[in-house]
Design brief:
The chain is of the alpha+beta class. The strands form 3 sheets. Strands 1-2-10-7 form a 4-stranded mixed β-sheet, with no helix packed on it. It has a 3-stranded antiparallel β-sheet with strand order 3-9-8, with no helix packed on it. Strands 4-6-5 form a 3-stranded antiparallel β-sheet. Helix 2 packs across helix 4. It is globular and about 55 Å long. It binds S-adenosylmethionine. S-adenosylmethionine binds next to strand 2, helix 6 and strand 7.
């Protein structure tokens, strides 16, 4: 039914999956899924290796890269995206940044030290004015690479988006501002990897693999601020890149979904009974939209024409 990935690709994928240095939580047993090529045009996908029941936790996943939504910067943890309670003190050197605790502060140390050395005002202002969120993930990855917390090739295994010439020219400005901020801070040899080609390659992967992190848990107070944030069109606490979840394909009537309770630590859950060998698919968009709206967003945002059973039935 599907082509298995070659052993060299499988080894590469495994090493990528293991590259997150310390997970937000640990799980010992391997997840009941495997990544393989689908029989249709969707490329690689995830398949159940045993029967799953509706509601089963398939696996959890920790992000490789996170970044808070720009407007919630002082309201969520700069590392794990947990909503900060009254006890979360702002960073001593930057009142706009908060860590939820010593662990997140310690685990951010490397990239944050690099980030703190640079003046990001031009880059940040440009992204905010243009309403861009993904360049913040590239900025964080670049700082992680410089600090040794991630490798230059961290995202290479993920599928890139096809970029149109207009988007490529827009990226040139962000790239220039990112590089300039790091050069001005005295990073020279350390940013030899930071070429326009690297920037575009990373952003092309982030565009179709980034998840909007929307927390399901929370107190009444959180719900109020969530409602306020939703009004301001900012219901997500941030964006994050995951490795294994990036291999889940889309279906408008999915059999799996990804949930976040308190922070960017994600849970992949079965939405109905799934047989061994069946492909697991999640819904990339708001499933309540009508057929035409879903098709437009999937085609413009993800570059594919959805041919799931729901779309084929015209629903
Ligand atoms: C997050 S990736 C999913 C994993 C990807 N198939 C791979 O090989 O890495 C998203 C991309 O997968 C493809 N894809 C996902 N769901 C699809 C579907 N239902 N039909 C066709 N292509 C799909 C599209 O190219 C989309 O941009």
């Amino acid at each position: 039914m599907f082509r298995a990935i070659s052993s060299r690709r499988a080894r590469m994928l495994l090493s990528k999956l293991q590259c997150a240095k310390k997970p937000l939580s640990t799980s010992t047993s391997p997840p009941p899924i495997r990544v393989a090529y689908t029989a249709d045009s969707a490329g690689r996908g995830t398949f159940a290796t045993r029967r799953l029941r509706s509601g089963d936790l398939i696996h959890t996943a920790d992000p490789l890269i996170t970044h808070p939504s720009p407007s919630l910067l002082n309201k969520v943890c700069y590392f794990c995206l947990r909503r900060s309670g009254p006890s979360a003190a702002p960073d001593e050197t930057d009142p706009t940044v908060r860590f939820c605790g010593a662990d997140c502060r310690q685990r951010s140390q490397g990239f944050y030290k690099v980030e703190k050395r640079s003046d990001w005002s031009a880059f940040d202002d440009h992204c905010r004015l243009q309403g861009l969120k993904y360049p913040f993930l590239v900025k964080r990855l670049a700082c992680m690479v410089i600090s040794g917390a991630a490798t230059v090739e961290s995202l290479d295994v993920l599928q890139p988006a096809n970029l149109f010439p207009e988007i490529l020219s827009e990226m040139e400005e962000e790239f220039g501002l990112l590089k300039d901020a790091l050069l001005r801070a005295g990073f020279n040899e350390q940013i030899a990897f930071l070429t326009k080609q690297w920037y575009i390659g990373v952003l092309a992967r982030i565009r179709i693999n980034a998840f909007r992190v929307e927390l399901a848990g929370g107190s009444y107070e959180d719900l109020l601020s969530e409602a306020a944030a939703a009004v301001a069109a900012e219901s997500a606490v941030g964006n994050a890149i995951y490795m294994l979840p990036s291999f889940y394909n889309h279906d408008c009537d999915p059999n799996a979904h990804m949930v976040w309770i308190e922070n960017a630590h994600a849970r992949l859950k079965a939405l109905r009974d799934v047989e061994a060998g069946e492909e697991l698919r999640i819904c990339y968009i708001d499933a309540s939209m009508d057929h035409d709206a879903r098709q437009t967003i999937l085609s413009q945002g993800f570059g594919f024409h959805c041919q799931c059973l729901r779309c084929m039935s015209g629903d």
